[in-house]
Specification:
By secondary structure, this protein is mainly alpha-helical. The chain is built from four helices and two strands, in the order E-E-H-H-H-H. The radius of gyration is 13 Å and the shape is globular.
C-alpha cells in the first residue's frame, strides 16, 4: 500500500528505512523523499514508525551518539 502518493513510497519501503535506522519522519524523508511534497503522508509515516521501536532512539536515550553504528543483535 502506498504511504506517499507524491513519490510512490510504500509502507514496506518506509519499514525498510526504519529497520535501517531512520527513526523520524525527517529521516524517512531524507531516505526516500516521502513527506517532502504535500505532507499528507507524514502522520501515516509517524504511525508506521511508532514509539520506542527504533534502535537508534534507544542509543540516543542512553546518551550515545545519534550516528554511531548500531550494536549487533544478540
Amino acid at each position: 500500500m502506498f504511504v506517499c502518493s507524491c513519490f510512490g513510497v510504500t509502507e514496506e519501503q518506509v519499514k525498510e528505512h526504519a529497520e535501517a535506522g531512520a527513526c523520524t519522519p525527517r529521516q524517512i524523508a531524507s531516505a526516500c523523499k516521502a513527506g517532502t511534497d504535500c505532507g499528507g503522508c507524514v502522520k501515516r509515516i509517524q504511525a508506521l514508525l511508532g514509539r520506542g521501536a527504533c534502535p537508534r532512539r534507544r542509543l540516543i536515550d542512553q546518551g550515545g551518539p545519534a550516528l554511531a553504528e548500531l550494536p549487533e543483535a544478540a
